[in-house]
Design goal:
Elements: E1 6-8, H1 17-23, H2 28-34, E2 46-47, E3 54-64, H3 70-78, E4 84-88, H4 100-108, E5 113-120, H5 123-129, E6 133-138, E7 149-151, E8 155-157, E9 160-162, E10 167-171, E11 174-178, H6 183-206, H7 212-220
Parallel strand pairs: 1-7, 3-4, 4-5, 5-6
Antiparallel strand pairs: 2-6, 3-7, 3-10, 8-9, 10-11
Length: 227
């Protein structure tokens, strides 16, 4: 369908706004626990922002030729408020495909953030602006604008499959992708994890934390305690 390798799909099925709002307060680590520690992008995809960074929104997916950002510009024009641009640049760290000008345009459109398996530049300026960016590298060399590339097709970013409309959440720990059709179920599981975490914190504070499970688990697995 269309010119494979050089095409743009404009239709994206986004999750409900109320559901996205829930994810704006969830920690990436807790979401990961709710999904069996899967769907977490690899360590190389990290933020250039301050520790309090948090990003959540539906994915606009982009696949580009390494070193070229034509389709990133097109996706920037297409994106709606609250969207997250997710770019598969095939892990290339030779070019910065995003910078200060694009950041200011994204902020004007109220885009939620950028995740790129590739490089960006103008890191200091982006950090000062406060726009959430998660990237594999910071490199000053800019990108070409020739194509080819594709928008809103299934991609791989940071070792994780991403489809248009999937929920993408990022904080100082990294980035996680929640498949759109499973986002409501994962949100419920994450809320339960938060409640259990709050219970544990309270038990630590009042000195009633039960740590017997550690020795019980060691015994079950055949570990001998030697005096």
């Amino acid at each position: 369908m269309g010119n494979i390798g050089f095409r743009v799909f404009t239709r994206v099925e986004r999750p409900a706004v109320k559901l996205v709002e829930k994810y704006k307060r969830f920690a990436v680590a807790n979401i990961g626990d709710a999904m069996g520690r899967f769907q977490v992008m690899d360590y190389g995809i990290k933020t250039i922002n301050k520790p309090d960074v948090h990003m959540a929104g539906p994915a606009i997916t982009i696949r580009v030729r390494p070193g070229d950002n034509l389709m990133v510009h097109k996706a920037l024009d297409m994106a709606r408020p609250g969207d997250v641009l997710v770019v598969d640049a095939q892990g290339s760290t030779l070019n910065g495909l995003w910078g200060e000008i694009m950041t200011k345009m994204a902020m004007k459109k109220d885009i939620a953030g950028l995740v790129i398996d590739g490089g960006v530049r103008d890191a200091k300026e982006i950090n000062q602006l406060g726009f959430p960016v998660f990237t594999r590298a910071v490199i000053s060399a800019g990108g070409d604008k020739d194509g080819p590339g594709e928008i809103n097709i299934p991609i791989n970013c940071g070792g994780v499959p991403v489809k248009p409309g999937d929920l993408v959440v990022g904080n100082y720990d990294g980035v996680i992708v929640i498949p759109g059709k499973e986002a409501a179920e994962v949100a419920e599981k994450t809320e339960n994890i938060e409640k259990e975490e709050a219970r544990i914190f309270a038990a630590i504070e009042d000195g009633t934390i039960d740590r017997s499970w550690v020795d019980e688990n060691l015994k079950k697995k055949g570990c001998e305690l030697i005096e």
